[in-house]
Amino acid sequence: MKNIFFFLLISISTSIVSAQTPKLNSKSGEVQVVEAACGQCQFKMEGKSCDLAVRINGKSYFVDGTKIDDHGDAHAKNGFCQKVRKAEVRGNIVNNRFLITSFKLLPESEKQNN
Hints:
Shape: elongated
Distance between the termini: 72 Å
Structural class: alpha+beta
Number of strands: 5
Strand content: 25-35%
Helix content: 10-25%
Largest sheet: 5 strands, mixed, barrel
Number of domains: 1
CATH class: Mainly Beta
CATH architecture: Beta Barrel
């Protein structure tokens, strides 16, 4: 009887946790290179303050899972409010926002600096 109760408890717990996982798109596991910048300053998105956004296939999405100042001063010469940068990201689009599971800012090339 104890084994059945334990099995049911584990089964219910597992189904509750999996039910709260957001639906992933087909690219959720893939690393992709995107443009990253301040959504308001560089991508001209509507908002109240400077927020990190990514542009994927010409469409801009605000980012959840990391913040604009987690990657340096957004208002510095090479910050997200001053220029568009490239980043390797992993994540998925949920409710018209990009849910980041990994974010790696790529170094600027000589061509980008000039």
